[in-house]
Amino acid sequence: xxxxxxxxxxxxxxxxxxxxxxxxxxxxxxxxxxxxxxxxxxxxxxxxxxxxxxxxxxxxxxxxxxxxxxxxxxxxxxxxxxxxxxxxxxxxxxxxxxxxxxxxxxxxxxxxxxxxxxxxxxxxxxxxxxxxxxxxxxxxxxxxxxxxxxxxxxxxxxxxxxxxxxxxxxxxxxxxxxxxxxxxxxxxxxxxxxxxxxxxxxxxxxxxxxxxxxxxxxxxxxxxxxxxxxxxxxxxxxxxxxxxxxxxxxxxxxxxxxxxxxxxxxxxxxxxxxxxxxxxxxxxxxxxxxxxxxxxxxxxxxxxxxxxxxxxxxxxxxxxxxxxxxxxxxxxxxxxxxxxxxxxxxxxxxxxxxxxxxxxxxxxxxxxxxxxxxxxxxxxxxxxxxxxxxxxxxxxxxxxxxxxxxxxxxxxxxxxxxxxxxxxxxxxxxxxxxxxxxxxxxxxxxxxxxxxxxxxxxxxxxxxxxxxxxxxxxxxxxxxxxxxxxxxxxxxx
Length: 493
Ligand SMILES: Nc1ncnc2c1ncn2[C@@H]1O[C@H](COP(=O)(O)OP(=O)(O)OP(=O)(O)O)[C@@H](O)[C@H]1O
Fold this sequence. Notes:
Elements: E1 25-28, H1 50-55, H2 65-77, E2 85-93, E3 97-104, E4 113-120, H3 121-126, H4 130-142, E5 151-157, E6 160-166, H5 173-178, H6 187-206, E7 209-210, E8 219-221, E9 227-229, E10 236-237, E11 243-245, E12 268-271, H7 275-281, H8 283-291, H9 299-305, E13 316-318, E14 329-332, H10 338-342, H11 349-364, H12 374-383, H13 396-412, H14 427-431, E15 451-452, H15 464-471, H16 475-479, E16 491-492
Antiparallel strand pairs: 1-14, 2-3, 3-4, 4-6, 5-6, 7-10, 8-9, 11-12, 11-13, 15-16
Helix pairs in contact: 6-11, 11-13
């Protein structure tokens, strides 16, 4: 799925590039009112340092062989750089650079494989896209989540910037879908992948990152079959102000139609200050505080603050950048949210819209608003009502599951971001939808995935004799794109 790429919230130019019918991501900078934090590529090159590596401490991966191998090299050499790695294959290439499969040069670490994204800084500076790469690195440095990339190291070598990340041998969900019967995932597989994606988006939002480029091509499958979102160069980094939301009866405790009793989006009370003491000393204390808080300029916030504090109120802390606003024209045509197209400013709700498109594509094998041209697609997104293709009549339970999936998609694909599921209170209301009934959110990472990639033979650490052959690969061989062998099918459970 190709994308169109232009400039971002972080770029100074507004170059324009179109690729009709493509599913490439793109950005056109109209301006952003979000607070954006970016640090430039620092240090002028060379190894990352032990100081830098402190930032990279990843508790949830601390015992992993790949992490330990990197740590040992750093300890022995005082840092890590390109010279410590051997590039084995090109895994893919994107707008910003190439991604290589690589391993450390130390013989004891050959079982540890990494994906290294190599970006030519000079070329990017020329194209005025350097800041996008910087933003991606900044975001990757902050992430520590099972469904998001682990950044093991980042360093510069000459005019190249290198990011060493977890390698995903399972390819992406776009390719995985082509292997499914009818090129569609089963509803249970969709639930699994969508649930993991919800958790990844929830974490990103809490970290002040609006992803903006969700699509099957950017959802990679890790060696254990769980997902990893990739490609953060279109993401928006913004501030998150935790808010306390209150409403009579929890919102979206779905009725038959899956929607809360009223169409009215839940209202948000003003930001809570200070945030941490709220969380530590109990929500009710915060609630009282929030009622006397300052308005953040949001009309709905004022309305909410004047509501009587009813006994029935169920306060809920929302830690998502629901009010971040960017006016960049960013994303992939078929996945663009209406508010992005209209340029009215968008925030984290765009990720819930793209989740709806993503889910639709996984279930039906195509996106909901695709037209004959990009322009038609954009017009459809704005105007065309959502419709679902007819599916072969299924029995009771399957039919019900399908209806619940459709209801979730319909709520995520609400054209008005304020009425969209997740648009006001974020992931909490998405997770409560009946489609996810039975999902134990805390244990999703321990659930058996629908498919687990078998390690392609070419990637299993070769015996010492064969290692020599790898070392002697020609430059041309190393440049060849990595292709899992055709007989390396996924094992289905
Ligand atoms: N961790 C990884 N494991 C395996 N393959 C990867 C990994 N990261 C990236 N790839 C492959 O490399 C390709 C390019 O990566 P990526 O999308 O991050 O680069 P990009 O320059 O940002 O591309 P884009 O133009 O989509 O933004 C991906 O399509 C994917 O096939």
